[in-house]
Amino acid sequence: MRIIELLKKEYKLFIRNRKQVWTVVLLPLFFSLIYVLMFSFSNIDLTVSVCNLDKGEYSSSLVSTLSAAFETSVYAEDNASACFAVIKDDILSGKMLGIIIRSDFSENIANYEQPVLNLYFDNSKPNLGFFAQSYLMNQISSFNNEILRQTESEIKDTTYSIETDLEKTIQLLNLMEYAIPDAVKPSYDELKNNVAEYYNKISGLNRIDLEFLVNPVDTQLVGIFKGSNSDGFSFSVLYVVVNIIVILLLSSVSMVYDRKNKFLTRLKTSSTPVIYYIISKLLFFTLIGFVIFVPSYLVFAANNAYFNTNIITLITGLILVSGISALIGCVIGLSSSNESSSTMISVFIGFLFLLLSGLFYPVDLLPGLAKSMLVLLPTSFEINLLNNALIFNTSIQVLNETIYYLAGYLLLFFGLNYYLIVKYQ
Amino acid sequence: MGLIEAVKSVFYKPQKMSRDKAVFVKNLSNKYGEKNFLNNINFIVYKGEIFSVIGLSGSGKSTLLKTIVGLNRKSNGIVHFFGRNLFFSRGIIGYSPQEDSFYDDLTIIENIGLFSELYGVSRDKGLRTGSDYLKKLKIDSFKDNYPRDLSGGQRKRLNIILSSLHHPKLLILDEPFAGLDYYNRRILWDFITSLRNRGVTIVLTTHLLEEAQNYSTRVLILKNGRKFAYGTFNTIKERIRFNYLYHIKFSSLSKKFFQTLKHFSSLKKVKIIYKFRNEVQFALDSADYRDVVNNFLKGKGRDFKEISLRKPNLDEVMLASK
Questions:
Q1: pLDDT value of residue B171
Q2: Cα dihedral angle (B303, B308, B314, B317), rounded to 10 degrees?
Q3: B207 CA to centre of own chain
Q4: Residue B246 is assigned to a structural domain of this protein
Q5: Domain A47-147+218-223's class?
Q6: Are B54 and B80 contained in the same domain?
Q7: Where are the domains of chain A?
């Protein structure tokens, strides 16, 4: 009953603080939506300004391709500096990319020389240039392919003509063989052999695939798990990060609030064991963990993420993930002097976990020492457990090692909370 | 605290009559690093007493209460409640901290429900007791309001109600009267007295000597973390040795004459406790000594004006007993 009364207290204090309620509902929703949108390239509306200094066939074709793919403003200036000025103005007014097509663009392509396309962007915005360039190159691949096909066709036409002429030359040389005087016979034989060799080489060139010249080795990325389910895997990572950030913030602030109201003084001078109090915090924030799960799950499910869930493993996972976050948050609250410092520490730790979660940068590619330090954090074990629960439908018995590790973490922080309350509050 | 002392503290049983001793404190010390906050404090509070711990700010009153209820760690000493160790006495002690200790975001009734369960009383029983106490302390009309709607004095009363919901045999109140006006103090004293009349032992800290004298059975006076005086007021008066403060202002006061005055006060039952410019404050054993001082000054031909003759407050008592 005492634990229920303490839980009721947590609930009432939580529900009467509207900001906290909104945080629990909206933060996971925003995180999930932003994540899903961020990695859906097909939805990017790239805005481009093009200044064409070349009046040739190829530049016109490129401008048409760009205009078809993006919201494009096209300028025809007389010189490069005028082009740069209009492009810069457009970028400062909100255009994402500026392109200057040099005057020798079409001529270079006609001469089989690689033309350079200058892309301009606002380099005060981190990563914009990289992402915009990748997206642009992806979208103008049809233009590149057209040039490739055209070049291939021209090369093949030419080599075919040469091949035909060489074939005729060989036939002619064969007819002339008996009329050749002995004195020039060696030179004749050498010429005949050379022509035959050129013929063979030209025949080979005619069969060559131009893609081979552009990209001699092709790679194909294939996940070892069936189907394409990267969104499902991302969900576990995202949920763990959102869970840590939200629950760390709420539980640490709640602990500071209890301290500020001298509740711990009351608790320690009452007949209620301190353990009951910690259990009530643990239970309440575990419930919050379940609440956070729902909006994120719905966003990912709506984005066609495939889930094959083992309910028991999932519930165990959510309890462990939320419980660990709650107890870490309580430790932060117990060691912070006020709400501001507990919020600051929670945000700092939350972002540390975010960066080390692999959501934006694969942790496997981190340097050796940093990677080995990650083993000390529960995050990778939590992500592994949720992946198994949500995607692989793994039963709980198979995941003993992971569960024992996380349960150990939970007990460690439970003990730390108990120690801090009994000794220092 | 060493292992042997810890074991002794658990198994120690006070001697005969332990059931009459609500609080038994022996050689209690509280030390952090080199600083002694409490130094070998000994005292007994008997069942049914109102026992006041008094002293200047920083004398160790709150530290003493926090140490005996286990909020501060004792570095040495034994504390027993009704013959038992603190661990076995939690359910029979009520402790009210100096600061407000309830939630402003829960209504008064919700706070009462929460703290009832916390102190091991069923919610219904706690609500009945709480409603009764709210009425007695004249804040029952606010029971569905949030504590933030209460005045400072009403919040103090609520703080004490929340510590008493489980009908403790011993109620420990840290500075319950701090910052309260006479009306609020009177309401609280009446409530405390009614609890005492029902057999509850009260231990409280205060700096109001006169009120402590009126309501308490016995007192403990602390000074710099040490026991300065302990017992009934009559016993303590002998230690304090003065009962009145006499404040006068000279038209002029030379250094030479002040030396003469100091010599005079060392011979008589009069003590100079304060001097600022032309003003001097004497501690007198009784009001009759005013004439002794006046006659001395008149005899020396000094021009002066009486400012006040009154009973001292605790600060002045402590100042005089330096």
A1: 95
A2: 30
A3: 6
A4: yes
A5: alpha beta
A6: yes
A7: 2-39+227-424, 47-147+218-223
Per-residue confidence (pLDDT) for residue A287, from 0 to 100? 95
What residue ranges of chain A have pLDDT lower than 50?
228
Residues of chain B with pLDDT under 50: 1-2, 14-17
**Predicted pLDDT of residue B146:** 94
Residue of B nearest to A5 (CA): B114
Query: Over the stretch A195-206, which tens digit does the pLDDT of each residue have?
Result: 999 988 888 877
d(CA A89, CA A80): 14
| pLDDT confidence of residue A291 | 93
Which of B71, B110, B122 faces A269 most closely, judged by CB atoms? B71
> What is the per-residue pLDDT for B63?
93
Residue of A nearest to B117 (CA): A2
The answer to whether the CB of B57 falls within 8 A of the CB of B319 is no
Q: Is residue B229 part of a domain?
A: yes
Looking at the structure, do residues B211 and B228 belong to the same domain, yes or no? yes
Question: Residue A16 and residue B105: Cβ atoms within 8 Å?
Answer: yes
In this predicted structure, what is the pLDDT of residue B321?
59
Structure letter (DSSP) for residue A321: H
Domain boundary among B218, B236, B254: B236
The predicted-structure confidence for B235-246, as pLDDT tens digits, reads as follows: 776 666 677 889
Contact B182, B153 (CB under 8 A): no
* Domain total in chain B: 2
| Cα–Cα distance, A47 to A254 (Å, whole number) | 46
Q: Which residues contact B103 (CB under 8 A, 6 or more apart)?
A: A9, A13, A261, A263, B110, B111, B114, B147
Please compute Rg for chain A using Cα positions: 34
A422 near B CB under 8 A? no
Q: Which residues of A touch B96 (CB under 8 A)?
A: none
Whether the ipTM is more than 0.85: the answer is no
User: In this structure, are residues B37 and B61 in contact, taking their beta carbons and an 8 Å threshold?
Assistant: no
* Domain span holding position B260: 242-320
The reply to whether residue B118 touches residue A269, judged by beta carbons under 8 angstroms, is: no
- Yes or no: say if B57 and B207 are a contact pair by the CB < 8 Å rule: yes
- Does some domain include residue B218? yes
Q: What is the pLDDT of residue B80?
A: 92
Distance of alpha carbon B42 from alpha carbon B28, whole angstroms:
7
Q: Is B2 helix (H, G, I), strand (E, B) or coil?
A: coil
User: What pLDDT was estimated at residue A357?
Assistant: 78
- Residue A269: CB atoms within 10 A of its CB come to 24
Select from B123, B20, B1 the least CA-distant residue to A9.
Answer: B123
Are residues A272 and B117, on separate chains, in Cβ contact within 8 Å? yes
pTM here is: 0.74
Q: Tokens for A278, please give them.
A: 């910690």
